[in-house]
Amino acid sequence: MNILFVDDLPDTCEVFKLAFRLDGHTTRVAHNGVDAVTAIREEKFDAVIMDVEMPQLNGWDAVTQIRQLPNGDGVPIIMFTAYGTQADRTRAREAGADDLMQKPVLPNELISRIKELRKNA
């Protein structure tokens, strides 16, 4: 799979990128919502994994914008956050995300969830 991973922490991005590569996936990294929207404009992805709290453009707003783009219409989007209340889950769905997972989350958990979402699409 070709995955867009979006998080403002460079170390987190590198860890997930490495883990996904070891599992046979390619990963493009973005460090904020603005870069994520740009990436979706430039490239087709099989899945997007998006942090909620980021500078410049947060995850909620980035997902809303991504869903309006041709490459972002049907792609599975999983958001992740340190919180994860029911209100956060509702907000994620309203933004257009397919799921919201609570940190800490392991790379293999994200891949499993992506595969499940793609299978049910």
Task: Fill in the keyword field for this structure.
single chain, 121 residues, alpha/beta, 5-stranded parallel sheet, 5 strands, globular
How would you sum up this structure, described in words?
The relative contact order is 0.17. The protein has a 5-stranded parallel sheet, with helices on both faces. The longest helix has 14 residues, at 107-120. Helix 1 links the parallel strand 1 and strand 2 (26-30). The model has no long low-confidence stretch (mean pLDDT 94). Helix 2 (33-42) packs parallel to helix 3 (59-66) and helix 3 (59-66) packs parallel to helix 4. The chain is 45% helix and 20% strand. The chain has 121 residues and is of the alpha/beta class. The protein has helices at 10-22, 33-42, 59-66, 86-95, 107-120, and strands at 2-6, 26-30, 47-51, 77-81, 99-102.
